[in-house]
From TrEMBL:
Pathway in which this enzyme or protein is active: Carbohydrate degradation; glycolysis; pyruvate from D-glyceraldehyde 3-phosphate: step 4/5
Cofactor (UniProt): Mg(2+)
Protein name per Swiss-Prot or TrEMBL: Enolase
Source organism per UniProt: Candidatus Colwellbacteria bacterium RIFCSPHIGHO2_12_FULL_43_12
Enzyme Commission no: 4.2.1.11
Amino acid sequence: MAKISSLKARPILDSRGSWTVEVYLKLNDGRVFKASVPRGKSVGSYEASYVPVEAAIKNIQEKIAPKLRGLTATNQKVIDNILNKIDGTPTKRKLGANSTLAVSIAVAKAGAGDSRKPLWKHLRSLGNFKNTGDCPRLFMNVVNGGLHAGNNLDFQEYLVIPKTKSIRESITVGTKFYDALRKYLVKLKGETSSNTGDEGGFAPNFKDNLEPFSILKKVAQLTRLETKVDFGMDAAASDVTLSKNKLKSIYKKLGRFKNFIYLEDPFSEDEFKSFADLRNSLGESLLIAGDDLTVTNLIRMEKAYKNKSVNSIIIKPNQIGTVTEAIEAVKLAKSFGWKVIA
């Protein structure tokens, strides 16, 4: 088994043009593995802390690297526990989750390489997850609003979710739908409606928060993909100023919308009871997901389960700071019977 010989870090630009950190992990056999960390634009207040990029680089090279040198790269849990011990805070406040996660992912990649497995198989073995044979469903963000766009939509993401038997077919359906949506919006609202938001979805102004779904339904009909797609939305309601009653009214209408199967963060991040009430009123056929509510955090997940707030969850390693903790969150979610979106 190869061992870690060095860790180096440098600043890089992410997809938004913001600075983040990239780690280079070198094994004693000369192989090098690299990893970088993302951060969402709308960040839940309970997520693990980030530190400035230069501080993260210093932490990695001066505080973390000496502790990991000589350790076997396949010992993911041991190494992640060391990262948590060095930091010593529940929110990664000292080292920063951008420091710990960049190192943790680099270790996972090195462990996969040393085990001669693709990364996804290595992660599956780390969590002792069974291969169900099911094809993951892709959640494609096709209309942007909220903090992700400069338009008049309150909600952040309008999603198309292909129903297919393979990833290849899902991508084919999704790209066909996206191109047809662009053409339809240009015809309906003019050339500037093809401008995109923060995550690549179209971002024109709309009559109201529900009009995008009427348009998505129309595009599905025009492309003859009605039986091939479902729809969903990330409300990101912690950043929405609408009243709770107004939100409930909108969600009630969405619950009657054909093929609408997924609603993420319908209320702000502390509204466990409001999540539960909505879940109860709309039924279990609709996935009510926690993101800012749960932040890949076992304690908040336990609270959501106790309150019956959600039946699905977003898993984001950058919210918690290590690969091991993200895996533990997936395992807990599965024990609750929740659907996992990652």
